[in-house]
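Operator note (shift B, R.M.): manual run for argininosuccinate synthase requested after the automated queue skipped it. Running by hand, logging everything below so the morning shift can see what happened. Input copied straight from the record, untouched. If output looks odd, do not overwrite the archive copy; leave it for review.
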Amino acid sequence: MAQLNAILTYSSPAIAPTKHAKEHLLHHRFCQAKPSSLRELSPRRSFGAASKPQVIKAVLYKDVEISETKKVAGLKGKLNKVVLAYSGGLDTSVVVPWLRENYGCDVVCFTADLGQGASELEGLEEKAKASGASQLVVKDLKEEFVRDYVFPCLRAGAIYERKYLLGTAIARPVIAKAMVDIANEVGADAVSHGCTGKGNDQVRFELSFFALNPKLNVVAPWREWDITGREDAIEYAKKHDVPVPVTKKSIYSRDRNLWHITHEGDVLEDPANEPKKDMYMLTVDPEDAPNEPEYVEIGFELGIPVSLNGKRLSPGNLVAELNEIGGRHGIGRVDLVEDRIVGMKSRGVYETPGGTILFTAARDLETLTLDRETLQLKDSLALKYAELVYAGRWFDPLRESMDSFMEKISQTTTGSVSLKLYKGSASVTGRKSPYSLYREDISSFESGEIYNHADAVGFIKLYGLPMRIRAMMEQGI
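Run finished. Output pasted below as returned.
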């Protein structure tokens, strides 16, 4: 097995690698990218405080042996280099040798750090090397994820099928964009993922690939190979000398990032079953939450959250702190039967503590700053916005156009909202804004110069005229 050649870690593309490192990089242009190159295809605007430069970690392996199939077409075709969305689990570890065997290609593994936790990132270098990957790239995308993807959805009020805050759906386009960027940098002619043919994520990844670089080939092993389950995957791994860690398999299928965690499978496959208490990972049971409430204040600018209890925070840190606070009060649990893109229904349980608090606050602040007609139109468009995001159409011109509308009408959504957190609930206790449309001198029951009680007489007669005419017709008057 090839030996580890070099590990390069740096905080900004502007910092040049050493001469020694350059010699090992050879033609790998990833570390020579201009600072703007990884953001050329990102949304037009960034929100909140400027994030720290991304930390990019490239792991290169010397003289990794590519099978003889690299010199000729593989069993299914011929590709030069493939960028694989890599988690380090059994499935993606098996995908690496499968790609080499079937497409005769070099495999570059990519992992996005979206806040899934350090435990899921441990040992990826060794796993990628053992599986036969020629390069592993790990990118810290937490701030970009929240700032450029999560917060626009929050501003739009996008909630899928009444409950789902789109935690997984929002994450896929940011991963896909990074994969396309890396493919361009390393000269790959294809991208690949380990999504199954029944799920939503295959659609989300591939629509993003199509939108960002239609020239790239897309390989989806689960739609091609003969592996039908975990046992087949283990046998394939053994056959190709890919070490399989002996660990207890989780009975749930989970996806975690800074915004949420989702649980599927096992007893949840029957919608009649109550989720088990020990299944949850981010939130305590509301019954076990503190007996005393906790109050928080969220500050907003232009519809985007920027502060917690008067302290300005970066988008990622703001969500992280609210996750911790909301989690200890049991906030953000959702049990949902949803409609997948591919037609079937599925049942999932989501934990989104910080997101639930933010959505509650954002919607409430708008009651101060937006008029009735604007609120109604915004709510109707939010349904379509959520549908587009869920269906993987983040880079669709329609979604981008709707985002421009949401940005425009949020110009006055600035202020703060106070909430009471208590045993699973986040209740608004107060809100204020310098652009508030609420006027105490007008809304008061006392008479004033601007509004005269008697003015309502003519309004009521005109407003109720259609109803009065209908009643007169029905009664022969």
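Quick read of the result: DSSP finds 14 helices and 16 strands in the chain. The longest helix spans residues 167-186.
Leaving this for review. - R.M.
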